[in-house]
Write a structure and sequence with these properties.
With 235 residues, the chain is of the alpha/beta class. 37% of the residues lie in helices and 23% in strands. The chain is built from eight helices and eight strands. An eight-stranded mixed sheet has the order 1-2-4-3-5-6-7-8, with helices on both faces. Helix 3 crosses helix 4. The longest helix has 21 residues. The N and C termini lie far apart (32 Å).
């Protein structure tokens, strides 16, 4: 189940400082950044606060600077979680498994425009979407950052290289659960894996860090660099 950690430190949706654009890909509005002619694309699948979160878009721009065409779809159709909305009520209309078919349509559209390889990173809610894509080999590499809803059986079912970026302080995917995930990936020698737990940070830190928290800022930067290295290795 999703808990209050998923809702902590909501982003301020002020625009500005972005280098990308909002386009429609398949049926979804999407923030896109980078070289549209690149043959390698990266999907970033948001947490419950959606594709408009400034720090998520900043990360999209950073990933794009490595040469990828980065796409951040709006899987919530203009209805992200807003503060004071009960998350369990919101989830009734925004289940991550139900978003998988929309993700497949985006992947299909990218392939139709000439993309040959696709990686995907999911944050909290988005990690469940990514792991479902990894189980069907719809993507070439997966990254799960402070995942929610992801189960051990999910990890046992992945068919592509998978990285897990965990927080030391996380009730959704605590370190002991991440270690179980790691054992499941190690049991699959046919795929690469990356597992790391970042000390001193809480669930959501990679896209919702507090600017005044020096440890979270440092660890977010570290995780972003590790994410780029993981994609660089596998794509």
């Amino acid at each position: 189940m999703s808990g209050p950690e998923c809702c902590e430190n909501p982003p301020k949706l002020a625009s500005g400082g972005e280098s990308g654009d909002v386009l429609q890909i398949a049926s979804l509005n999407s923030y896109v950044s980078g070289n549209a002619d690149s043959k390698i694309a990266v999907l970033l699948i948001s947490d419950v606060y959606g594709y408009g979160a400034p720090k998520l878009r900043k990360l999209a721009d950073k990933v794009a600077s490595a040469g990828y065409y980065v796409v951040v779809p709006d899987f919530f159709h203009g209805d992200p979680l807003i503060p004071d909305t009960p998350i369990q009520d919101w989830l009734k209309n925004h289940g991550p498994v139900e978003a998988v078919e929309f993700a497949k349509s985006v992947i299909k559209a990218l392939k139709e425009k000439g993309v040959s390889k696709i990686g995907a990173a999911g944050f909290c809610w988005g990690a469940k979407v990514v792991v479902e894509l990894a189980k069907e080999a719809e993507i070439q590499v997966a990254a799960l950052l402070h995942p929610s809803f992801v189960t051990l059986d999910d990890l046992k079912g992945v068919k592509v290289s998978t990285g897990i970026f965990g927080a030391e302080i996380d009730r959704m995917s605590p370190p002991e659960v991440v270690k179980e995930f790691e054992l499941a990936l190690k049991a699959k020698p046919e795929i690469d894996h990356f597992v790391k737990i970042y000390n001193g940070v809480s669930h959501g830190w990679t896209v919702r860090w507090k600017d005044e928290d020096e440890i979270a800022v440092k660890c977010a930067k570290e995780a972003h660099e590790d994410l780029l290295a993981w994609f660089g290795k596998c794509l």
